[in-house]
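QA checklist item 7 of 12: single-chain prediction sanity check.
[x] sequence parsed
[x] length recorded as 53
[x] structure emitted
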Amino acid sequence: TMMAAVIGFFIGQAFDGSVAPLATGYTICGLAAIAIILLTERGRMFHPGAQGR
């Protein structure tokens, strides 16, 4: 929660009346989320798991 507040603070400080900072913030946060998933899953999310367990 604290990390989200800090990220939101920086996105809010970049607000200049247009939607560009918001779109940039969404893009950066989305790419960071995908990168974290890829790092933690180590490629396993693209392979079928053990089924029937």
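[x] summary fact logged: The mean pLDDT is 84.
[ ] second reviewer sign-off
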